[in-house]
Amino acid sequence: MNGLVEDSRSSSWKKNSRTDSNMLNSSDLSDRDADVHFVVPESVQQFLSYFRQKFREGNVSEVHTLYETSFNRYSERYFKTTSWPNPEIAAKYVDNDEVFLLFYKELYYRHIYSRLQPTLAQRVEAWDNYCDLFNFILNDGIVDFDLPPSWLWDITDEFIYQFETWCHYRNRLKNKTEEELAYLKDNEHIWNVNFLLQYLHAMVNKSNICPWLLNGNEPVGSSDPDDDDFDYSTIPVYRFLGYFSIIGLLRVHCLLGDYKLALMVLQPLDFDDNTALFTRVTACYISLYYYMTFAFLMLRRYEDAVRVLGSTLLHIGRIKQHHTRSYQYEQIHKRTDQMLALLAISLVFSSQNVDESVNSMLREKFGDKMTRMRQGEESVFEELFIYACPKFVSPCSPDYDRPMDRHMEASYLQTKTFMREVRQRLAVPEVKSFLSLYTSIELCKLAQFMETTEEIFRSFLLCFKHKTFVFCGSPGQAPAEGSFVCCAPVSFFVDNDVVRVMDTKTESKFGEYFLQHIGKLQEFIQILEQKKKSSTSTE
């Protein structure tokens, strides 16, 4: 694996990619000239020097504060509409520390992606830096360092995000110059999906995270780097990077539309462990459950999606108030709304109960849309799906000889697949409602009720059987595991053109029952208190 990673980053094309990308955009060169004359505020100089000092000391708590708070505060104050000092300029404030500069460059390009519009040259340079950074880590360079888990998660997450934006950028061909098109055509190794996956898998293998997880969160080797059986999972940086790379693979496979493989990579994770590593970073927690439940939705595992989304949204509701000042707050808020949309779709397809507080959020946000979806409005399904789905990518290169914008093709394909499932399910609720009213009824009468022919209604019954026989997991199982079960609220069979209903399952809404009787009890207590007050006043 390491050999493959090294091949993806050979020094020959590394040098050429940087030279050619700079030649592509003359304005980028002028920006570099402007950087040379840019006066770095003294407080920023001191911040970079202090940041590097604490990084070298391995002071994780202080580095965490500098990374999550100070860096964003300086960004708001000095670099709201401009980039941070070019790494070449910043080098003199950090004693030309090459290791620290690798991580500073990651922050530098991430800031450009979040606040500005990156040029082609900057996209290529960001890729170069990620390759340098991961190769440094994979070649044992970070054994003596320690970083906060939030930064390690953001490195992994941003790596995939920039790959995602590159795929969309590469498929927007209309407004690109011939020079840019020629460069893209000749440099297909840049942000290549195969190299991306190789880096993530290499990080998982290097960290030895899977044996660590299967061994009850304990290393299987020695913690001494000089021993032959040295286990990299004993080093927190490698352990977290390997763990986060597993969740990164989940995201990549969802973006590519391979949902079964996306769930399979989660096999080593223990979701019943309250101290699991994904709980250490809120953004990681939310990303894990968002992509996992989206994969459930696309695999038509609506019961699993409802079960996981219900508990996840309940947890987010409890911790959300603690992140109001965090730089992750907007992302958490957006993901929460997207997960509510996924829950709304899943509940329309699966008649299950969720916690009352989650149900309240759902009614407030998407109550009207859920009603319209139950009435069969296809446009609402499509609207919510487009809002809630990730930005799918196409891993293959476009046809550069036909400069057309194709960045939305992957999304159109996934939307088309989802809407085909919606159309197949439109008749299921109506069939269920009629079957719930009878113990036996002639097939032709049911067909008349639904204003269709007997032959078509037979296909509706088969569709009902098919769509209510689903693959479903349980809380103790891995996400990819489960078994086929019948979740139909009505059990029936057809006997000589007569539909015979054998059993009707009634839903037990215990929460609503107790809330209703608690309300009645409170009213009764109030009446008794009023009677006592009136009796004492008359005496």
In short:
By secondary structure, the protein is mostly helical. The protein has helices spanning 2-7, 11-24, 26-36, 42-57, 60-78, 87-90, 98-115, 120-138, 149-170, 178-186, 193-207, 209-214, 236-256, 259-264, 282-298, 302-319, 329-349, 356-374, 378-388, 409-425, 428-435, 443-449, 454-467, 510-538; strands spanning 440-442, 469-472, 483-486, 490-495, 498-504.
Account of the 3D structure:
One of its GO terms (biological process) is formation of cytoplasmic translation initiation complex. Component of the eukaryotic translation initiation factor 3 (eIF-3) complex. This is Eukaryotic translation initiation factor 3 subunit L. There is one protein chain. The chain folds into five domains: 1-25 and 120-280, no CATH class; 29-118, no CATH class; 292-426, no CATH class; 427-504, no CATH class; 509-539. Helix 4 runs antiparallel to helix 5 (60-78), helix 7 (98-115) runs antiparallel to helix 8 (120-138) and helix 11 runs antiparallel to helix 13 (236-256). It is mainly alpha-helical. The longest helix has 29 residues, at 510-538. The protein is built from 24 helices and five strands. Mean pLDDT is 86; it is low at 6-23 and 25-30. The strands form two sheets. Strands 1-5-4 form a three-stranded antiparallel sheet. The protein has a two-stranded antiparallel sheet with strand order 2-3.
